[in-house]
Specification:
This protein is an all-alpha fold. 65% of the residues lie in helices and 0% in strands.
Length: 399
């Protein structure tokens, strides 16, 4: 019997080549629905070298949905909303997720919890509703005599954190981590290290929990442990620096390969800013940002766009516009504005329906610039006065 493979993001990075070969065999010899879904998720999450993993994954998921798979419906809702592997269709995305949740699909429910807790897909956050739904699901399992679901515990912690604070959420994060939710280890580390503050209050405790999380396979914990280990870099003797730097770069690359996409962004920042005794190198910075962008990282897309905009790299206007459009699809406020501006200036016309349906109404809304603030480094992404159309009466951000 083939071993059941988890489709959770962090778990997929532990899938071996032999297991992928087994999935292929199960798919093409038996049309195995479960194997097909696992393989589609693996393509989305892990496949770096595949020619077009997102289109292949979306095609597989469409086939599964036609066969009645509600897990496929939930995953398709993500791809349709973001325009991954095919056209953007946010109306269909909503219907697919509603269908999945109504059918009692656990995967669909987890996506819905995330949307409600953090306010995604254009919806305002409603962590209380998410908490109520989670508690109802926990009660239902108890009535049925089923074992506790660590994912329900995890999202209970996420909702409690938003409604109260990290300290109140910590017991749920710890229980979820011990129950096998790998990503919960980072929440545990942050809760112990930061408490309810925005500044680190106990570095030693934070480092211990990051190390524990890394030991359980949390790549974000491994990445942050490596980053925190370099906090005293400037005070190290030069000879010690060389060894520390080599180890640091190895750990960042390893963390990226194991799913910590932010590690690629940090590597890009290092070369962009010339940090840790590295020379400023825009080519290397772009290369690492691009790696993160291929994994749908919004920050990386914003930085790539800004590099083009401010002449840090030689790329075409067409490429800048496509980056802006990708960012808009992922709900980047900065890149949504740039995509709409490009459209009003006569570019991206082949995406007219998508932009006019989904992005222009947001850009034109009265509250679009409420609370607007530039990123920490103002050279990254901002809207210049001369970029904004001022001759059609539509909008002036600084009037």
């Amino acid at each position: 019997m083939r071993k059941k493979i988890s489709t959770v993001y962090e778990d997929l990075f532990f899938v071996s080549e032999k297991e992928i070969e087994g999935l292929h065999k199960a798919i093409y010899e038996r049309g195995d629905i479960e194997a097909t879904f696992v393989y589609a998720r693996w393509l989305i999450v892990c496949a770096d070298s595949y020619l077009d993993p997102y289109s292949k994954a979306r095609s597989l998921l469409e086939g599964l949905y036609e066969q009645g798979s509600m897990e496929a419906a939930a995953e398709l809702s993500e791809l349709c909303y973001k325009g991954i592997g095919g056209p953007v269709d946010r109306e269909r995305a909503s219907k697919l997720l509603e269908e999945s949740v109504a059918a009692g699909c656990d995967y669909g429910r987890r996506i819905m919890y995330r949307i409600l807790i953090y306010g995604q897909r254009g919806l305002k956050a409603d962590p209380q509703r998410a908490l109520d739904d989670v508690l109802a699901a926990i009660a239902e399992r108890e009535e049925q005599g089923l074992a506790s679901d660590p994912w329900l515990t995890y999202y209970r912690g996420c909702a409690v954190e938003q409604l109260q604070n990290r300290t109140a959420a910590l017991p749920f994060f710890e229980e979820a981590a011990q129950g096998g939710v790998i990503r919960a280890w980072l929440d545990v580390a942050v809760a112990y290290g930061y408490g309810n503050d925005t500044e680190l209050v106990n570095q030693d405790v934070y480092m211990r929990w990051l190390a524990k999380g890394a030991g359980h396979g949390n790549a974000e914990c491994a990445f942050l442990y490596a980053l925190e280990s370099m906090s005293d870099y400037e005070n190290l003797p030069m000879f010690t620096r060389l060894f520390a730097l080599k180890d640091f770069f190895l750990k960042l690359r390893s963390a990226y390969r194991n799913g910590a996409v932010t590690a690629a962004v940090i590597l890009g920042d290092i070369y962009y800013n010339g940090e840790y005794d590295q020379e400023v190198d825009m080519y290397k910075a772009w290369t690492w940002y691009e790696k993160a962008a291929k994994k749908l990282d919004i920050t990386a897309l914003e930085k790539m766009f800004a590099m083009i905009k401010h002449g840090k790299v030689e790329r075409s206007q067409e490429e800048a516009d496509e980056i802006a459009l990708k960012g808009a699809r992922l709900d980047s406020k900065y890149l949504l504005a740039e995509a709409v501006i490009a459209f009003t200036q006569g570019r991206l016309q082949e995406h007219a329906d998508e932009i006019s349906r989904y992005y222009e109404p947001i850009f034109d809304s009265e509250d679009f610039f409420d609370g607007w603030s530039a990123p920490e480094n103002d050279t990254w992404v901002h809207i210049d006065d001369d970029d904004l159309p001022d001759d059609d009466g539509r909008f002036d951000a600084y009037s």
